[in-house]
Amino acid sequence: MNRGLLIVFEGIDGSGKSTQCRMLADLLNKKGIANISLAEPTRGKWGMKIRQLLAKGRNGISANEELEWFMNDRREDVKQNIEPALKAGKVVLMDRYYFSTAAYQGALGFDPEKIRVDNERFAPIPDRVLIFHNSPEKSLERIESSREEKSAFEKRDYLIEVQTIFKSFTGPNIRYVSSDSSLEKVYEQVLCEVQDLFEVKL
Ligand code: TMP
User: Fold this and answer.
1) Is the Cβ atom of 13 under 6 angstroms away from ligand 1?
2) Angle formed by the axes of helices 156-166 and 136-146, nearest 10°
3) Which of 81, 82, 67, 52 is nearest to 152 (CA)?
4) Domain region containing 155
5) C-alpha 41 – ligand 1 centre gap (Å)
6) CA of 48 to the centre of ligand 1 (A)
């Protein structure tokens, strides 16, 4: 059976990854390539609990529980959305996946490598992971211009630590994309980093 493709967009808040993910989805639609866009945290029961946490702050739950919620949300996403779409031969575009857990919960003190390994026991390994990076100042500027209040996940020192962990990932499927330049330039780089996965010219 044809397995689809799994392409993941990762990076700190305000790194511009979600916009680039949407731009690639639009292009695939134009080219008639079957695709689905997913995002974590999801809109499922665990994802909604996490969203409340993001809005209200981390008070009241332990770091262990926080990690567990993200893992539960992913288990559900893998079963209900990711695996069926891959089995159907679709290109799955994900705005965040387990590299976010390794980086964000890793920055709380958990071992990022262990988080990655634990996830890879049940979550399909992506064909490509694009890790967007830019200066935390630029991210904070973007966050401040688009949101009324920063969440507990969007504080400067924490984001710097998260970004340091993101930058430590290595592997044949991992590519780094600098998002400090213009939208068009970043998009060009995105296409360049995924082109080899497709038979048609993007
Ligand atoms: P979003 O703004 O891209 O929707 O992501 C919501 C927040 O959730 C973001 O600050 C990163 C955080 N997050 C984690 O801490 N761990 C995870 O595993 C995921 C998927 C997201």
Assistant:
1) yes
2) 120
3) 52
4) 5-196
5) 6
6) 12
Q: Is residue 185 part of a domain?
A: yes
Residue range 107-151, pLDDT digits in tens: 999 999 999 999 999 999 999 999 999 887 888 888 778 766 666
* Domains contained in the chain, number: 1
pLDDT, one tens digit per residue, over 152-179 is: 667 888 989 999 999 999 999 999 999 9
In a domain, 173, yes or no: yes
- Length of the chain counted residue by residue: 202
What's the gap in Å between 163 CA and the centre of ligand 1? Answer: 13
Ligand 1 atom 8: residue of nearest CA? 41
Please report whether residue 201 resides in a domain: no
96 lines ligand 1 (CB under 6 A): yes
| 100 close to ligand 1 (CB < 6 Angstrom) | yes
Cβ neighbours, 10 Å, residue 31: 12
Cα–Cα distance, 144 to 24 (Å, whole number): 25
Looking at residue 127, its amino acid is: D
Write the residue with the smallest CA distance to atom 10 of ligand 1: 153
| CA within 13 Å, CB half, 135 | 5
